[in-house]
């Protein structure tokens, strides 16, 4: 069989992880991939900004041109074409993929209707055989937009080869880790921790001003704007706690860190909602409903290392038991499409 995976294939990205897992699950396949980040990264900064904001302009054209050139140079059709986040793929490009593919699947870990909207995707969504989303709040949107195309709801996941414990509990720093884009609600959460004297290790875009304001007065350790791959996993695994904060820009209920953190053997601190409460019990994660409760629970647990260790291990065993790895998640999707993934 022939497998084609299209998406951002930069090492450290979740789409790169999924491409590796798909190839591992289908070892007999002749695997091809197209990294849409290549033409996008080569585009001028202004063109990238226009593409990001409006899904238009020369960077979008470059992505489509590059993809079509790669497809035309491939001497075979595909039993499975997996498109990871098709926000820049024009309908004309998707039609060619449709003609060349027995199964055409679209996957996104992000919102597609309540955020990250793309007129290209809305115009071509009916061409896919399956839409896969991790956003429960958007399932009805998919069904209304593409009534003839099945939609599969799954969860975010973690990469087994990467997200794993890297040190013994006794070696972990007594800190709260957070990696993510700066947002007002996240400023408030980190500020609340620092005001209570709880040490925080932080990484992500948009935090420079916040870090400068706390440079001389708070137990804050900034590890830069970008962490990926082994550095990202080690950052999470070497702290006793880590925040799994959801974005407030749209109503998501869990994130990749919801599973990456416990997979790394670290105690997950997460907001209490319908999904997180289903994924974990009170003994498997540190839940909070407001910032006061978050600070109170962390401060209390810091005095009980054995309790932190127990929550960390219970959370890790839960994600293993429930199959939250990309290997288990993608194997289920492939099985539903009629393929036979290896275990």
Key features of this structure:
Rossmann fold; 18% strand; 6-stranded parallel beta sheet; alpha/beta; 2 domains; 15 helices; 343 residues
Quaternary form:
single chain
Report on the biggest sheet: 6 strands, parallel
β-strand number: 12
SSE ordering: EHEHHHEHEHEHEEHEHEHEHEHEHHH
Under CATH, the topology of the largest domain can be stated as Rossmann fold
Query: How many independent structural domains?
Result: 2
Order of strands across the main sheet = 2-1-3-4-5-6
Looking at CATH, the homologous superfamily of the largest domain is Glycogen Phosphorylase B
What class do helices, strands and sheet pairing give? alpha/beta
What's the helical proportion of residues?
40-55%
Beta-strand content: 15-25%
Global mean pLDDT: 96
How would you describe this structure to a colleague?
The protein is an alpha/beta fold and 343 residues long. The chain has 2 domains: 168 residues, 3-Layer(aba) Sandwich (Rossmann fold); 153 residues, Rossmann fold. Helix content is 42%, strand content 18%. The chain is built from 15 helices and 12 strands. The longest helix has 17 residues. It is globular, with a radius of gyration of 21 Å.
Briefly say what this structure is.
This protein is of the alpha/beta class. The chain has helices at 14-25, 37-42, 45-54, 58-72, 91-100, 119-124, 139-145, 184-195, 208-213, 229-237, 257-263, 274-279, 291-301, 305-321, 326-336; strands spanning 2-7, 30-35, 78-84, 101-108, 130-133, 151-153, 173-179, 200-203, 220-222, 239-243, 267-271, 286-288. 42% of the residues lie in helices and 18% in strands.
């Amino acid at each position: 069989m022939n497998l084609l995976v299209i998406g951002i294939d930069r090492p450290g990205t979740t789409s790169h992880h999924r491409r590796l897992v798909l190839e591992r699950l289908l070892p007999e396949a002749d695997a091809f991939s197209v990294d849409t980040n290549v033409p996008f990264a080569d585009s001028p900064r202004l063109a990238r900004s226009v593409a990001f904001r409006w899904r238009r302009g020369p960077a979008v054209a470059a992505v489509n041109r590059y993809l079509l050139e790669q497809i035309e140079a491939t001497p075979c059709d595909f039993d499975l074409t997996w498109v990871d986040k098709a926000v820049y793929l024009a309908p004309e490009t998707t039609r060619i993929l449709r003609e060349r593919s027995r199964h055409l699947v679209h996957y996104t870990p992000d919102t597609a209707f309540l955020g990250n909207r793309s007129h290209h995707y809305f115009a071509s969504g009916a061409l896919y055989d399956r839409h896969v989303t991790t956003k429960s709040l958007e399932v009805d949107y998919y069904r209304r937009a593409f009534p003839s195309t099945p939609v599969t709801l799954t969860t975010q996941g973690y990469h087994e080869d990467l997200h794993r414990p890297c040190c013994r509990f006794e070696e972990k720093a007594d800190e709260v880790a957070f990696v993510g884009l700066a947002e007002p609600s996240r400023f408030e959460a980190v500020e609340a921790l620092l005001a209570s004297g709880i040490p925080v290790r932080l990484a992500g875009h948009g935090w420079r001003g916040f870090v400068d304001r706390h440079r001389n007065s708070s137990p804050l350790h900034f590890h830069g704007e970008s962490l990926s791959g082994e550095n990202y996993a080690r950052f999470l695994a070497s702290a006793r706690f880590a925040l799994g904060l959801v974005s407030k820009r749209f109503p998501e209920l869990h994130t990749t860190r919801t599973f990456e953190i416990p997979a790394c053997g670290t105690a997950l601190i997460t907001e209490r909602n319908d999904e997180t409460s289903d994924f974990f019990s009170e003994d498997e994660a540190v839940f909070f409903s407001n910032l006061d409760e978050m600070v109170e629970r962390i401060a209390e647990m810091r005095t009980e290392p054995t309790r932190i260790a127990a929550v960390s291990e219970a959370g890790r065993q839960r994600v293993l038991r429930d199959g939250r790895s990309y290997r288990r998640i993608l194997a289920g999707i492939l099985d539903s499409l009629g393929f036979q993934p290896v275990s």
